Hints:
By secondary structure, this protein is of the alpha+beta class. The chain is built from 8 helices and 7 strands. A 7-stranded antiparallel sheet has the order 4-3-2-1-7-6-5, covered by helices on one side. Strand 6 (127-132) and strand 7 (135-140) form a beta hairpin.
Amino acid sequence: KGEDWDPEEFDSVVSVIPAFKFSIFLAVIESKYARDIDSDTLKEAVKDLHDMFLLDVIKKGKLKKQMGLIPAFREHWFVIQPRLISLYSSWEEKDRRGDIPLDHQCRVEAVRSQSGSKSPVKQKSHRFYLYANQKTYEFQATNHRHRLEWMSAVKKAIDNSGEGVRYQMLQSRQRRVQREEDLARRLSHLDIVEQTRAELKVEKAAREEAESHAALLSEEKELESLKLKELEDIRKELEQLLEEEKQAKRDEEIVRTLQARMLTEEWEKREQLEKMQEEQKEMLNMERSKREEFESIQDEREGKVKDAEKRIIDLEEERKKLDDELKKHKQKTRRVNIGQEVLEAKIKVKEQECEKESEALSRVSSLNPAASMFLSTRGDKTGYRPMRSASMRETSYSRSIRRRTRNDSVSIRSNFNEEEVNNNTGD
């Protein structure tokens, strides 16, 4: 069963044997760390060591690469060396699919994923670009950690892609230099420890002398400290007295400022009171003038109200008188209308009688003209009037009656309109 790796032990072996062949190195590894291990595992480990130390292989493993014309990724077995990236179909590294040469002008960049897009194609997770030979190669790792490992390996290969540069040789030299620095640091540390011990002894003796001297000084210092305390107490008392005097002066100044402020405030309040009294007097005068004006206006209104009441009373009396006259005129008109109707009826009766008489005369004249003359002479003797004059007298009488009624109605209407106008003006 193999033992665990002990770097200190390996450093001790390397310090004894500064350089040895690869076969001797394998023999040491097999004898010390490769017991009870099958041959396949040992072969694989030897091959890895061979690739790493002799072929300068920085990293190998599975990685996806975007195809040229098709937007899809294909898995390859990648082998990264300082000046070349080789692509194989499997880990056996028999079927080579392609090479990507590297130089100092190449660079590697990570693909930024689009957080807003939901499709996995647009997110471009765990991808990175390689710009080499005026071309852009896109790769995809399985996770974020593997992407960082592959990017760092490619960057190391680009940095160590110069001519005549062996990556593992540089690494071994750096490790050797670091080991030598560690050994020098350890040796210097031992020297420093011995030197510090000697210094500590010298310091111890000096410290003892200093302590004895410090004891004397401490006694003198105690005496001086007592004197200083006394002087300090006296100084504090004097400072306290000065502070009390200063505080008293401050209090006096504060009292004076307060008194001056109170006086100024009293003067301001007095001026404000005087202004308020003047304003109150002005307001009282204004109120008196307004009150007098209001009383005069109220007296005028009361006089107008009384006049209006008197006018209303007069108008009511006139209205009553006019109502009585209107009633009288209405009665008169009724009577006139009744008399007119009676006269018209009489006139119609007389007209009918005249028509009958005229018919009778016409009949008699047609039968006997002498008899008609007799009737005419008879009528003149009895004072008979012709029908025309009687009808004319009746019509003139009726016309006079109609004129009276019209005049009465016009006068009544005019009086009624005057009453309405007076009522409106009184309101």
